[in-house]
Structure formats: structure tokens, C-alpha cells
Amino acid sequence: MKLTSKPQIKLEVNLTLDEDECLALDAIIGYGADKFLDVFYTHLGKSYLQPHEKGVRSLFTGLKETLPEALNKIENARKAVN
User: Fold this and answer.
1) Is the Cβ–Cβ distance between 26 and 68 less than 8 Å?
2) Nearest to 65, CA basis, from 37, 26, 39, 35
3) What share of the chain is helix, strand, coil (3-state, %, to 5)?
4) Distance of alpha carbon 69 from alpha carbon 14, whole angstroms
5) Of 79, 39, 81, nearest to 56 (Cα)?
6) Is residue 60 within 8 Å of residue 29, measured between CB atoms?
7) Which residue, of 20, 22, 38, 45, has the greatest Cβ tally within 10 A?
8) pLDDT tens by residue, 46-67
9) Can you say whether the dihedral through the CA atoms of 49, 54, 57, 61 is positive or negative?
10) Model pTM?
11) How far is the C-alpha of 24 from the C-alpha of 39, rounded, in Å?
12) Are 76 and 38 in contact (CB under 8 A)?
């Protein structure tokens, strides 16, 4: 038997957004990570965000998978009440 260990440090952050903030974030990610990064790099430079590009892409992917569903639930609840 071979046993190996790999120490890990994990950070988890829970973020609470209101509907307006979710809509704003959804609009931003609607452009896609490539377009967002292209415009950011063109107008603000690469030195600040480029070291975090992998995280930006992961964030866009995760939000694109979850935000529309959350916003749809809000809209469906609003329709049900009306």
C-alpha cells in the first residue's frame, strides 16, 4: 500500500447579492470572459488583472451557470404573485 498526503488550504466566501446586483453582474458576464478581459486589458492594462485571469474565467463560468437560474426564480415568483 502506498499512502500519500497533500496538505491543502481552502478559502470559501459566501456572497449575498440583491436583485439589482445580480442583474448587473449578469449583464457583465453576458459579454463573456474573453470580451471582458480584452476590453479591460485594452483600457486599464494587464498588470492588475492578468495574474488572476484563470480566476476571472472560472468566476464567469460559475456565474453563467447559476445566475440565470436565480434570476429566473425571482421572475417566476413575481409572476406568481401578480
Assistant:
1) yes
2) 26
3) 65, 0, 35
4) 18
5) 39
6) yes
7) 22
8) 999 999 999 999 999 999 999 9
9) negative
10) 0.77
11) 17
12) no
